[in-house]
Design brief:
Layout (H helix, E strand, L loop, with lengths): L4 E7 L5 H11 L4 E6 L2 E10 L14 E10 L5 H10 L1 H8 L4 E6 L16 H13 L11 E9 L2 E8 L24 H12 L8 E5 L5 H8 L3 E5 L6 H4 L4 E4 L16 E4 L5 H12 L8 E7 L8 H12 L5 E5 L7 E7 L2 H14 L8
Helix pairs in contact: 2-4, 5-6
Length: 374
């Protein structure tokens, strides 16, 4: 049986620590704040918990959550020495005694994505630490298909933290909660990265050929990601869209604001995404007008909601946003501050097949006429 742990760690976006602490206080008031650095926070648990029985909450502002076995400090950053000390930790020894583990290693993010060209993901330091840990691992201790992960966070060059978490979802497989996402050379903006990560995280059942509506599409990075995935896209924005995007045969640009387009122009859209630089209520108002109209049958949403003030990140405000989207007929609504988000978070919503049939029935009763864009 793996060793019990008294602390949990959370990985978050640098600067999101206050929002994360508020969210934990609302969702798990028995957790007590213990330690914080930008992008990495720990909490003392109400009782010791074994890793295989720790079922973490899914929090908007925590990219990854696991049990913490503690930290290792040294005067100098020596990866080989650190690796040997990790495997010698009593909690780690008990963990691998129960079976082989995956290895997840990451460097704490200390700056926002996009600052000075920085994007989250593996670094030379984290890759070197991974190699040192593999080289020092006891025989048979590491495998790629275990349901338990040994986590090593490089919080400082001379400070490593070790912990563990069970693999229960696709995001649990991402070291530090960050998927390996890259933008191609032709990407016109980093919105490409956000949209690609949003699709990976949400698991929306969109298929090539589906129609997407993007509100606030300029200059076109998110639309590019959709087009590269085989989707058809209608982009809405009064600003110019990059010619690379407008030249694509499956892209159509509507020069208008999100709240100005006619619903009859977009009646066959299946999905809506948005990354409008405005308050969340503006985005939600524009989306609600479309998804609640009798002539549309929108299966799901992938929305970026801006945190233009600290109050917008409060747990009750996020909960009210989720409730509002559910009131439109979307039974499954989730939120997450993606690794490639800045001062914003992503909301994903999808209707079940039964909900879609119910919505279509109600809309036919309200308006029996059916329209299509083309």
């Amino acid at each position: 049986m793996p060793a019990d742990a008294e602390f949990a760690y959370c990985v978050c976006q640098p600067g999101a620590e206050p929002a994360l602490k508020q969210e934990v206080a609302a969702r798990a008031p028995a957790w007590r704040f213990a330690f914080s650095r930008p992008g990495f926070v720990t909490f003392k648990l109400p009782e010791p918990t074994p890793p295989d029985r720790f079922d973490p909450m899914r929090l908007t502002f925590a990219r990854a959550i696991g049990l913490s076995f503690g930290r290792l400090d040294a005067d100098e950053a020596d990866g080989a020495a650190f690796a040997a000390r990790v495997w010698a930790m009593p909690a780690v020894a008990e963990l691998i005694a129960a079976g082989p583990v995956r290895l997840q290693v990451w460097r704490r993010e200390s700056q926002l994505p996009g600052d000075d060209g920085h994007e989250p993901g593996p670094t030379a330091e984290s890759l070197a630490a991974m190699e040192a840990l593999r080289a020092a691992a006891p025989e048979g201790a590491v495998t790629s298909d275990s349901r338990m992960s040994l986590d090593v966070a490089l919080v400082e060059p001379n400070q490593w933290w070790a912990g563990a978490h069970a693999i229960r979802s696709r995001t649990d497989r991402w070291a530090g909660g960050t998927p390996r996402v890259e933008a191609p050379e032709h990407a016109v903006s980093r919105a490409y990265l956000k949209l690609k990560e949003g699709l990976l995280w949400s698991g929306l059942p969109a298929a090539p050929g589906d129609y997407w509506l993007e509100l606030g599409c300029a200059p076109g990075g998110a639309s590019q990601a959709l087009l590269d995935a085989g989707m058809r896209v209608v982009g809405v924005d009064p600003a110019e869209v990059d010619p690379i995007v407008t030249a694509h045969p499956d892209f159509e640009h509507l020069r208008a604001r999100a709240n100005e387009i006619g619903v009859d122009e977009v009646t066959d859209i299946a999905w809506i995404t948005s990354d409008i630089n405005a308050a969340p209520d503006y985005t939600l108002d524009a989306v609600e007008r479309l998804v609640t109209h009798p002539s549309t049958h929108v299966r799901g949403l992938l929305l970026t909601l801006k945190l233009l003030g600290p109050n917008l990140a409060r747990p009750e405000v996020v909960a009210a946003t989720i409730g509002r989207v559910r009131s439109w007929g979307y039974g499954e609504v989730r939120t997450r501050q993606l690794a490639h988000n800045r001062r914003e978070y992503c909301l994903a919503a999808v209707r079940s097949r039964g909900q879609r049939r119910l919505a279509r029935g109600r809309k036919r009763q309200a308006d029996p006429r059916k329209g299509t864009r083309r």
